[in-house]
């Protein structure tokens, strides 16, 4: 696809920048993909879509005013004429908008070109393996594969380009009672053996779902959270939990940790780690983050995520976070709990594979609520007894990443972002499992 070649985006941008007047500057942000989407059910292909798309977001500054607009990009002559029309309209609209007191102007943050394009089997070969291994079970889900691009360029000479190639099989297995176990196999390195192990593990959990579900009374229980459940907990924390802007505005749920009024467990450490290669280090302004940003180290707050706009507003130092100051490539440090010892260490309690519907229940105390999901089990004396009916929880980050945190697994699972609303997401998380001495279920 021509639009996914860096030379075409760069050439188009230079044409646009040549149009700018003396008091004007501009940043162009590019996103594009070439993706196959294959929808599966009952271990058969039901629908296949080959998608090629690219867009350019314009951040247009005139004086102390800014406007944003977007156009599709096809790497042909129509792109330039459409952009010229939009620029002309923007110059008229500038007269009616206020100045931006915290304006982030384009700067030159260098030139980088990163492409992570590992060789994968053909889409046909990958799908054939999936269907062959899932042929004995009711497998339903979506397989995606292809290239994704993110790039930014501005009128003062900066240019950053990031291109990656990956795949994901986001699927569920169903038994005859239509109970499901959800799983994900994703990454940039395809392994037939890893796929086989992933499906076999999911089949084993599905076999446990044939046991009659047990209703667990509300209350506090010992709990093991699998890595996929921990990744959901991080997802909610990303909604203002590590944002300097949220902290300054009084809505940061971990303000007591920052102010040293409370602590978390010394077993808990969180960092932003771009060495995973799942997302670019640069943000939409072209500012380049450090490869690793320590956020919480051994239970103590080290840094907020700080965008330059927030830095301008509150007179603090930026670390070039995204505009939303949310986690882009978080990693939780591992511990010493071996996979083979999980059930024994849990003893009697709940094994939680996944969570969903998470949201804040009380930001002041960093409490969240949500539901258990899919393959969650009641365990007695280190043995799985039965799957459980869904439970609602209400707990604080100061508990499950703090006082209740007994152990952390010595392995992690990498979960690339699989969202595809409007376009495929970049990014992901790397999380271990955690063993908790207590966790509160309310319904």
Class inferred from helices and paired strands? alpha+beta
For the secondary structure, the number of strands is 20
The gyration radius over C-alpha positions equals 24 Å
Largest sheet: 7 strands, mixed
What is the H/E order? HEEEHEHEEEHEHHHEEEHEHEEEEEEHEE
> How confident overall, as mean pLDDT?
95
How far apart lie the N and C ends?
51 Å
Task: Tell the overall outline.
Answer: globular
List the domain count as a whole number.
2
Assembly level: single chain
Helix content: 10-25%
Which band does the percent of strand residues land in?
Answer: 35-45%
Low-confidence spans: pLDDT under 50, at least 5 residues?
none
The number of helical elements comes to 10
Provide a short characterization of the protein structure.
The protein has 443 residues and is an alpha+beta fold. The protein is 22% helix and 39% strand.
List strands and helices in order, with pairings:
Layout lengths: L5 H12 L6 E18 L2 E19 L2 E8 L4 H17 L17 E6 L6 H11 L4 E17 L4 E16 L5 E8 L4 H17 L10 E7 L1 H11 L6 H5 L6 H4 L11 E4 L18 E6 L2 E2 L6 H7 L15 E3 L9 H5 L2 E4 L1 E9 L4 E7 L3 E4 L2 E5 L4 E5 H7 L1 E12 L11 E14 L2
Parallel strand pairs: 4-6, 8-13
Antiparallel strand pairs: 1-2, 1-5, 2-3, 5-6, 6-7, 8-20, 9-10, 9-12, 10-11, 13-16, 14-15, 15-18, 16-17, 19-20
Describe the 3D structure.
22% of the residues lie in helices and 39% in strands. The model has no long low-confidence stretch (mean pLDDT 95). The radius of gyration is 24 Å and the shape is globular. It has helices at residues 6-17, 77-93, 123-133, 192-208, 227-237, 244-248, 255-258, 308-314, 342-346, 397-403, and strands at residues 24-41, 44-62, 65-72, 111-116, 138-154, 159-174, 180-187, 219-225, 270-273, 292-297, 300-301, 330-332, 349-352, 354-362, 367-373, 377-380, 383-387, 392-396, 405-416, 428-441. The chain has 443 residues and is an alpha+beta fold. It folds into two domains: 2-208, PmbA/TldD superfamily (PmbA/TldD fold, 2-Layer Sandwich), CATH 3.30.2290.10; 219-441, no CATH class.
